[in-house]
Amino acid sequence: MITKDTGNYLFPEGFLWGAATAAYQIEGSSMADGAGASIWDRFSHTPGNMRDGDTGDVACDHYNKWREDIQLMKRLNLQAYRFSVSWSRVMPEGRGAINEKGLAFYDRLVDGLLEAGIEPLCTLYHWDLPAALDDRGGWLNPDIADWFADYGQVLFEKFKGRVKTWGTINEPWVIVDGGYLHGALAPGHRSAFEAMIAGHNILRAHGAAVKRFRQVGEGDIGIVLNIEPKYPASDRPEDEAARRRADAQMNRWFLDPLMGRGYPQELEDVYGEAYRDFPQADFDLIAQPTDWMGLNWYTRSVPENAPDAWPVRARPVKQVQHAHTETGWEVYPPALTDTLVWLHEQTNGLPLMITENGSAWYDPPHAIDGRVHDPMRVEYLKNHLKAAHDAIGKGVDLRGYMAWSLLDNLEWSLGYSKRFGITHVNFQTQERTIKDSGLLYAEVIKSNGGVL
Ligand SMILES: N=[N+]=NCCCCNC(=O)[C@@H]1[C@H]2[C@H](O)[C@@H](O)[C@H](O)[C@@H](CO)[C@@H]12
Q1: How many angstroms is it from 73 CA to the middle of ligand 1?
Q2: Is the pTM of this model over 0.90?
Q3: Is 298 annotated as a binding residue?
């Protein structure tokens, strides 16, 4: 592998290098030891929802292989590991009784990480809502703000002094756009009216958890947003208007209220009669000050005006001049720099962390001669780390980078067909093999970017 340090892309001292996963995507054993079902157990077992009929029943079997996976993290030189907790493993009904065996899994994981010198970054919610709460309306029920804060309190108290960096909710936009607007993700609803309500309650739940954290927790807390910058397909006014609608519906819908600005005005244009406003007290709760913000970044898009494209009336124009990943996302690293600078300004200089960045490319189902060569992922990783470094040079307070993902895993309704891991998983044998991209990443971490 690369040995020389160019020194051109050295990151600040103390920059935090890690990798990220999510409970339902890697753990398996989702109903073991008293756990309750989540909406993803239901959704993945409903015929027609999942590519190849895949489910998270086994996934990467991380529930059993977590010790081996910590050793893998050490071989990757990881300084941090971003994981999520399965709410229904800890509280089978989502509220009330605690399942001590479920909580004990995360207790062992956190202690194992600390013993390995790896900082645990915990996400409270990464899409796997307890099914029992969905039966009570889930994100459509305003009571969920208190249910979520109560769940957060269990973890804040259990891991006080051991977990210092908390994320409340992973990607409100994907939860709502996928789960309530277009139906591609659990719980599979298709309603703009529900989308507005679910999105608002997700924000309220975030605020309630932050307030509770200030009362019982210790450390830093923030939220994790996916931001996909929008560049107009032309300088025609209708394309700029489409860009604004797309930017409002995907990027500012959640960011603006979190920063105390309320919903962007374009949202009413997007959702029409489904748009609704809410009491100011809600927006005061939502805009609780946070300590950091997570950015999940994959790609940009170039929208044009498209009156038939419900509800945003904008459609991305494929940028055929650039490579596209297996998920159809354009590879365009300069847009990451743009996003980081924009987010730095939008959050008035809040500390930022890239909580996810990565790419899906075709990898074989098994390693060959103990190796998995993934040149496209190597290139994506190198060029996006350079783009992140460029943002730091422009004054962005970027604190860390978590590669998505530590392992090939369940890519939600796309099943195991899309591999994002810097470590390959043979899903027949559960054998892990660090890919070339993982070997590079280990060197990047060891040199703090020096090898880039
Ligand atoms: N249209 N479009 N453009 C791209 C929009 C990206 C939205 N998807 C994400 O950010 C998800 C995030 C999730 O946390 C993780 O659980 C997923 O495995 C990764 C990979 O999919 C990413």
Answers
A1: 22
A2: yes
A3: yes
Instruction: Report yes or no on 144 lying in a domain.
Output: yes
CATH of the domain at 278: 3.20.20.80
CA of 3 to the centre of ligand 1 (A): 32
pLDDT in tens, 199-230: 999 999 999 999 999 999 999 999 999 999 99
Question: Is there a domain that residue 318 lies in?
Answer: yes
Ligand 1 pocket mutation pick from 54, 82, 174 by most atoms within 8 angstroms of CB: 174
Q: Which stretch of DSSP H or E encloses residue 81? A: strand 80-84
Is residue 280 situated within a structural domain? yes
Assembly ipTM? 0.97
Domain residues for 431? Answer: 16-446
What's the CA angle centered on 419, arms 124 and 72, to 5 degrees?
A: 65
Residue 404 in marked binding region: yes
Instruction: Determine, yes or no, domain membership for 30.
Output: yes
Number of domain units in the chain? 1
**Residue-wise pLDDT tens digits, 288-320:** 999 999 999 999 999 999 999 999 999 999 999
25 annotated among ligand-binding-site residues: yes
Q: Taking CB atoms and a 6 Å cutoff, what residues make up the pocket around ligand 1?
A: 22, 25, 170-171, 174, 226, 228, 296, 298-299, 329, 356, 404, 411, 420
List active site positions: 171, 356
3-state secondary structure of 125: strand
| Residue closest to 108 by CA, chosen among 83, 127, 131 | 83
Which residue in 420, 318, 329, 315 sits closest to 377, CA to CA?
420
